[in-house]
Amino acid sequence: MAEIKQLPKRSEVPVALTWDLSTIFKDESALKKAIAQLSPQVDALLESSGNLANNGATLLTAIQSELKIENQLERIYVYAELKNDQDTSNNQNQALKDQVNDLVAKVSAKLAWLEPEILAIPKATLANFQNNNADFKPYKHYFDVLNLKRKHVLSTKEEAILAGASSIFETSENVFGILDNSDLKFPFVKNTAGETVQLSQGMYSTLLQSTHQSVRKQAFEQLYAVYEQFKNTFATTLAGEVKVHNFNAQIRGYESARQAAMSESAIPETVYTNLVTEVNQHLDLLHRYVGLRKKILNLKELHMYDLYTPITGKSPLNYTYLEAQEEAKAALQIMGDDYVSHVDEAFKNRWIDVVENQGKRSGAYSSGVYGTNPFMLLNWQDDLDNLFTLVHEMGHSMHSYYTTHNQPYQYGDYPIFVAEIASTTNENILTQYLLDKYDDPQIKLFVLNHYLDDFKGTVYRQTQFAEFEQFIHEADARGEALTAEMMSDYYGKLNHRYYGDDVVNDSQIKSEWTRIPHFYYNFYVYQYATGFAAASALAKGITTHQPHAKDNYLTYLKSGSSDFPLDVMKRAGVDMSQKQYLEDAFDVFEQRLNEFENLL
Ligand SMILES: [Zn+2]
Description:
Elements: H1 28-46, H2 56-86, H3 91-111, H4 114-119, H5 123-132, H6 140-148, H7 156-164, H8 166-169, H9 171-183, E1 188-190, E2 196-198, H10 201-208, H11 213-229, H12 231-251, H13 257-263, H14 270-281, H15 283-297, E3 302-303, H16 321-332, H17 337-348, E4 352-353, E5 365-367, E6 375-377, H18 384-406, H19 416-437, H20 441-477, H21 484-499, E7 503-504, H22 526-543, H23 549-559, H24 565-572, H25 580-599
Parallel strand pairs: 3-7, 4-6
Antiparallel strand pairs: 1-2, 5-6
The structure holds zinc ion.
């Protein structure tokens, strides 16, 4: 008789395998007290509105109390989020989350006056405040960041109108989300075991990994049949979103939406164009990898639905959670004793919510707030993929740990441009560690394939998305209509260029743009690709023991947002304003592809 695996209830999970949220709030009454204290502070701050330009002390006090409010609000918000994620079926958790979301919206609206008022202070007056008051020193970069917006801020009245309309600007993304997550109905298909299952976003990715081509094909065709039915609606929501990006950029005097998005972190647009150029110059490597896939799978035709099925069989390496802890520490030992001692703290002091339970949020992430330890959510399974996930999330958590212990609150977080570098450096270090540790060709093949697939999905695929994103923004700016047909036409050609002649460019794939939520994020995806490439270069420096590589890397982890991302990364050892780090990353990819080919 088949064994039916039932997930435990939240209350049945051993405490040692749950995270300890009491480091955020000791108990419910501490949380209630923090919530109650917030409003009076926001109201008190409001009293200084209109007076910030009077003198430096008034300005600084206002900024400091705003940061204090922000920190407390984050603490409340993160607590409610984590509590809800551990069991989304718990009504009390849901109610708390709703209450806190309301609170966040109210407080943000009440604080909206602050930034425009600071930016209305003439630059010379601000410089004067800074020069005559030593207390401003820890805020120098804070003002540098703010000043980037100075040229692009509108009149107080215009800003107020825009702030009032902000929820209207979110309509396209909201409609996409509702359609994609709840209104689309997917048909029933057969899974690998021959059972009938309902197709969904999650089920689709499972079915695409099936070892039966007929299962993959059916899932692919059925999923795209649903999306294609609504392609004109999806074209309208995406066009609406692109228009918002272009409109906001234009009224604020930016040359393009891309320039506006990237200038927030002072990232020059050449970072983007270098990425696209370099990836295109190395498409031959992707074509080679895809060709290998076709050969190993022994297929006459390799289709778009054959790109996710494993080609090296079942994982030869499996780990219990305890074994994974030891292996993670052994792999990360190269970062030094201090780093590993904090990894150990994460395991011992319940920073991690380890196992699945009923109602728990799926996937994995690292979270936290300034002033508490980081937290990690996992849904642990005993395999190599989960060990990779563990070191990935640990990379984020160590980044948070070192940043919050070395920076004041105003620099105590980090932008997305540098965030994925800490996590994927750890993944790259684990890859090298396993390749060095094992001689068994089966294991080597599996680890190499894990890396090659990761590189394909992160560097190549995200750059393909970035090219599409750029195309639709430029077309709209030129006044061209973004119809389903023109977007599909471009996407189909783009896909063929990326995967080459060895893959059948199935007609369905040209509609892939209909189902990618990231196209609503405004020039976001390129950072996955640049981050992975930078991580590849950094991990290489660390694992080959280049002078200062490890220490420079730790400096990056400690820097938070105390400087512009490119400057932080330069000190870590990668100059992301140049092309070399991308070429280094492709060198590693090529070497490992060669190794993979030789082992076969
Ligand atoms: Zn991550």
